[in-house]
Specification:
The complex is a heterodimer. By secondary structure, chain A is α/β, with parallel strands linked by helices. Helices cover about 40% and strands about 25% of the residues of chain A. The relative contact order of chain B is 0.15. The chains are: A alpha/beta, B alpha+beta.
Chain lengths: ~290, ~450
């Protein structure tokens, strides 16, 4: 009798063998490299493709950029990050006004928008500033600590009078010599480079200090001391301070500069020379003639 | 012969490649079932000599990670009869084993029992070059063996050197490094029909697998089911398969004779099927559940239902006594054993020092077989089961799997064969590049 149940015949004939392609597929899936590719490579490819496809549109990219900037500014504009005041410490009024001029910041401003390094360089570029440090203090204060250059002398240049510090940096203009009468006056080509020597000459001047008008650098190699009544002390190239000390000592012992002397020439250390005024020479000759 | 040498060497190279990858498959293509084992080689085994565990014939170096069997279709007498069916059966087994192992296998070592194996003893003699025997001398003496006329359409399957003699001393296992003048060897050659091998090769190729070795299943069964002293002193392994019964005689740990009887368990089944007029599937079932070869008084009373689905109630409800079943099975089993006896007598088995006979294979599970075999084959008969190997599932430890297990041992430790030795330089074709390389290597 034939079986009336068609499906029973089906199950009886079922072949347990895998098909050729099924067999190959299973072997392929057991290949480690292929499995890794499928498990890792394919999802990455799909995700990457989706992301790339989405960002390929200009509007989507713009949306992401806008959202990013929005969040960024929201955070940066928080009250905690806002700078409201600027304080300048260690500078006198002129300088602090200068600092405020070169840093034209409109407060309030987010501290993320401040480029402290650039601002520091801007301030440090001011001639009167030796050192400067900037920081944003808690409480929204931009703190600028300035170390000002200290003027040590007045320098007369072709452009006018300027204050100069110990390193030879010109700080600022002075209208008149009388404004800074407390500082010595130095002039001449190359005087800025050997400022220390000039200042040490001043420091040994002692009693003739009130009479000193200034120091002139001659020919970029030696100094001349100018006194108030036009007297000149010519100092040698080397050991200028020692030579000047000798002149000071001579003045104390013999009142040399009180006499009618036009030039004291110390350029040759073994042979100091004095040039007198013409009148004095004439007088001296008369006296000598009378004695004869 | 040169093609054979090259192809066998290629298989050895393939086996080496499989060892590098650490995974190899074992395929036992039998008439009743196709078994596939997936072995993983983890380098040296986890046991050392110092642990008191020996090398265990090599089975400690691998582990069975996948095992599958499927009913064989299209194989008769151990030979491929229907190519497509066999291919599908192999695919089924390989796929299931791969799935269990969760690893892909590309190299397979196969064994088969059919193809009418024939055994030849060869000998060769050569003068030793220099005073010490080197590997080159062994290669030369093996190449020097006189190959008998193996017949048209036959192929060499095994060519194993089984004995070396140096001058008057014989029975050397490894003559290398010994001093002497004349080196002689005995070689055991097994040939089978080349069409059978080609069919198997084609099937395996169709399954996208590479053949890394081929062995006779009688030999493989012998490796796994004979214990070491039996192999050493001399024993015969009778592998009672479905379509054919393989015979291999071992001595001094070498196979010295191999033959097969083209009868097996399938013939018993068909006898039952014809005798009781039932379907072959039912006959197989009755054989495995109630089969036996020694009838007792109890068996007259034990009735077996012979089911059938012809629709005829009288026919479908028949019962037979177990004694009747045994009466059908016994003559066939006797016939097989008688035939085995004849083959053993031809091989001169009675001259061996020890005449142990080990019955293995699926057919050896018939209850009472050892009693029957005692009467036909002699007193020293036992039923053998394969060696235990690591990771083998319980279902695959039966005697039906002795060829598969033996093949795994063969994969781990292949016997030196002729093609494992370099062919001597003078046998190479003239102007061979290899010859030049060889000359350089020998002289610098």
């Amino acid at each position: 009798m034939r079986s009336l149940k068609a499906d029973r015949i089906e199950t009886a004939k079922r072949d347990p063998a895998p098909s050729r392609w099924g067999y190959r597929y299973q072997r392929l899936m057991l290949t480690p490299g292929f499995r890794k590719l499928l498990k890792v490579g394919l999802p990455m490819l799909v995700v990457g493709g989706l992301v790339a496809g989405w960002t390929a549109r200009e509007a989507n990219r713009q949306m992401v950029a806008d959202a990013y900037n929005d969040v960024k500014s929201q955070i940066q504009q928080r009250d905690e990050f806002m700078v409201k005041v600027m304080t300048v410490d260690g500078a006198d009024e002129t300088l602090s006004a200068d600092v405020r001029t070169v840093l034209p910041i409109e407060f309030p401003l987010s501290s993320f928008d401040l480029d402290l390094e650039e601002m520091r360089q801007t301030v440090a570029a001011l001639p009167a500033v030796a050192e400067v440090s900037l920081r944003v203090r808690p409480g929204g204060v931009l703190q600028i600590n300035v170390t000002q250059r200290q003027p040590v002398a007045v320098f007369r240049s072709p452009e006018g009078l300027k204050l100069i510090d110990a390193e030879g940096v010109l700080i600022q203009n002075v209208m008149a010599r009388a404004d800074r009468a407390d500082l010595p006056l130095i002039t001449g080509d190359g005087a800025r480079d050997v400022l220390a020597e000039g200042l040490s000459i001043y420091s040994v001047a002692g009693p003739i200090l009130p009479r000193m008008r200034g120091l002139v650098r001659m020919g970029e190699r030696r100094w001349d001391v100018i006194l108030d009544n036009g007297q000149r002390i010519l100092l040698p190239t080397e050991n200028a301070v020692v030579a000047f000390e000798r002149v000071v000592a001579l003045n104390q012992a013999q009142d040399l500069l009180e006499r009618d002397v036009a030039v004291v020439d110390m350029r040759h250390p073994d042979r100091p020379t004095i040039r007198m005024n013409e009148q004095a020479v004439a007088t001296l000759r008369q006296i000598a003639g009378a004695e004869e | 012969m040169r093609d054979l040498y090259q192809s066998q060497r290629a298989q050895r190279a393939m086996r080496q490649a499989a060892m590098q990858r650490g995974v190899i498959a074992i395929l036992d293509v039998g008439s009743s079932k196709i078994a596939c084992l997936v072995l993983r080689f983890d380098g040296q085994g986890q046991f050392n000599e110092s642990d008191g565990v020996g090398s265990l014939a090599g089975q400690s170096s691998f582990r069975v990670i996948g095992a599958a069997t499927t009913r064989s279709r299209g194989v008769r007498f151990g030979e491929i009869d229907a190519m497509a069916e066999t291919e599908r059966a192999i695919r089924t087994a390989v796929q299931a084993a791969q799935k269990m192992a969760n690893v892909r296998v590309d190299h397979v070592i196969a064994c088969m029992s059919g193809g009418r194996p024939r055994s030849y003893g060869l000998d060769g003699q050569v003068d030793v070059m220099g005073s010490v025997v080197t590997e080159g001398d062994i290669g030369r003496v093996l190449a020097e063996c006189d190959v008998p006329d193996i017949g048209e359409g036959r192929e060499v399957m095994h060519a194993q050197p089984i004995n070396f003699a140096l001058d008057h001393r014989s029975g050397l296992a490894d003559p290398r490094g010994q001093i002497g003048q004349t080196l002689a060897t005995d070689m055991h050659l097994v040939t089978i029909e080349d069409s059978v091998i080609e069919n198997l090769l084609y099937c395996i190729k169709r399954c996208d697998l590479e053949l890394a070795g081929i062995a006779s299943s009688a030999y493989a069964a012998g490796i796994s089911s004979l214990v070491e002293d039996e192999q050493e002193l001399g024993a015969a392994c009778i592998d009672m398969g479905g379509g054919s019964t393989g015979i291999s005689i071992f001595m001094r740990k070498h196979m010295i004779y191999s033959d097969s009887v083209r009868m097996g368990g399938d013939h018993v089944t068909s006898d039952i099927s014809m005798g009781l007029q039932v379907a072959p599937a039912m006959a197989e079932r009755i054989k495995t559940f109630y089969g036996g070869v020694l009838a007792t008084g109890m068996d007259d009373r034990e009735m077996i239902e012979v089911g059938s689905d012809t629709g005829d109630w009288e026919h479908d409800r028949r019962t037979v006594s177990r004694a009747e079943l045994i009466g059908i099975m016994r003559p066939r089993v006797e016939e097989i054993l008688e035939e085995v006896r004849v083959r053993l007598d031809v091989a001169g088995f009675e001259h061996l020092p020890s005449q142990q006979i080990v019955l293995t294979g699926g057919g050896s599970q018939i209850p009472g077989l050892d009693g029957l075999a005692n009467k036909i084959l002699g007193q020293q008969v036992r039923i053998g089961r394969p060696l235990r190997v690591q990771g083998l599932p319980q279902a695959a430890t039966g005697s039906a799997f002795s060829a598969a297990v033996g093949l795994s041992l063969f994969a781990a430790h292949p016997q030196d064969e002729w093609w494992d030795f370099d062919i001597p330089a003078e046998k190479y074709p003239a102007r061979s590049f290899k010859r030049a390389v060889r000359w350089f290597r020998e002289n610098w």
